[in-house]
Amino acid sequence: MPELIKYRKHNAIAVLTLNRPEKLNALNYATNDCLLALLDSIEGDPSVRAVILTGAGDRAFSAGADIHEFAESINAGVDVAVREFCRRGQTMTARLEAFPKPVIAAVNGIAFGGGCEITEAVHLAIASDRASFAKPEINIGIPPTFGGTQRLARLAGRKRALELLLTGDTFSPERACAMGLVNRVVPHNELLPAAVELAERVLRHSSLAASRIISAVTRGINTSIEEGLLIEREQFARMAATHDAREGLQAWMERRTPNYSGH
Q1: Fold of 5-203
Q2: Burial 52-78 (b: 16+ CB within 10 A, else e)
Q3: What pLDDT was estimated at residue 1?
Q4: How many whole angstroms separate alpha carbon 72 and alpha carbon 95?
Q5: pLDDT value at position 165?
Q6: Closest Cα partner for 182 from 132, 233, 238, 224?
Q7: 3 is known as an active-site residue
Q8: How far is CA 186 from the centre of its chain?
Q9: Residue 70 and residue 85: Cα distance in Å, rounded?
Q10: For the chain, what are the domain ranges?
Q11: In this structure, are strands 124-128 and 184-186 parallel, antiparallel, or unpaired?
């Protein structure tokens, strides 16, 4: 069997490549499960401090869920479809959203359906100028199922999200950037170098502090401001007792580069 997700390391960065180019990197159940297993392994590997997720080939990041596969689940009944398709996809995007190490999508082409939902869920995203986005689920008579009805509205605003969700229209990487779905659009041949450069700018800092920030933002974004501030204080308290916090402060006062230990 071909490798569903290619894994390579670039210094402290794990580069994961969705590897079904003949299917436009569609997310079948095995690919979804493989991604979750790789994230579990990466979380426990202290030598990896950031993740870049991209797609194989020049055509697609991911065209979304594998329609032929999930159609069989739908035909098997609602309970089967919810368990095998919807819950599996939501678990994957929730895992990416709450992952304690920064995850950057390098969107190299089509990002439709589940591919768009991955882009919505990850912490940072850079798009090729050849990328294209869509929320096309309405074309096959279903709503998005991997979090797309929730995250896009939070990123782009209700009316802009509903226009895309209700029409299924394709939209450009420039529009994705203007809506906050991606951070930047770059020439296609500069995509992976730009993603690596962004990861390296994050990795200059304490990995523990990055994890605390991700946790505070992910948990706090859907709460009241009062609850969010409590989460922020909790994450600060967890950080304040660490070597990295003391080292960061000391290095700043001594005008030197900090030597973070990750503890």
Answers
A1: 2-enoyl-CoA Hydratase; Chain A, domain 1 (3.90.226)
A2: bbbbbbeebbbbbbbeeebeebbeeee
A3: 52
A4: 25
A5: 98
A6: 132
A7: no
A8: 18
A9: 6
A10: 5-203, 207-253
A11: parallel
Q: What is the pLDDT of residues 203-261, one digit of tens each?
A: 999 999 999 999 999 999 989 999 999 999 999 999 999 999 999 999 999 999 999 98
Rounded alpha-carbon distances, angstroms, from residue 239 to 55, 188, 207, 250: 35, 38, 11, 15
Mapped onto helix, strand or coil, the DSSP state of residue 133 is strand
Specify whether 117 is catalytic.
yes
Q: Which of 22, 137, 197, 234 is catalytic?
A: 137
When pLDDT is cut at 50, 70 and 90, the band that residue 192 belongs to is very high
Give whole-number Cα distances, 76 to 69, 80, 88, 142, 243, in Å: 11, 6, 16, 16, 54
- Residues whose CB is less than 8 angstroms from the CB of residue 12 and which lie 6 or more positions away in sequence, other chains included: 47, 48, 49, 50, 203
What does the pLDDT look like over 60-102, one tens digit per residue? 999 999 999 989 999 999 999 999 999 999 999 999 999 999 9
Strand runs labelled E in 30-147:
50-55, 60-62, 103-107, 110-112, 124-128, 132-134
Task: Tell me which of 3, 72, 117, 190 is the catalytic residue.
Answer: 117
Q: Summarize pLDDT for 137-190 with one digit per residue, the tens.
A: 999 999 999 999 999 999 999 999 999 999 999 999 999 999 999 999 999 999
Q: For residue 42, give both structure tokens.
A: 């990466």
Evaluate if pTM is beyond 0.90: yes
Nearest CA among 194, 173, 122 for reference residue 151: 122
Q: How far apart are CA 258 and CA 205, in angstroms?
A: 8
d(CA 1, CA 86): 25
The alpha carbon of residue 155 and the mean position of all alpha carbons in its chain are separated, in whole angstroms, by 13
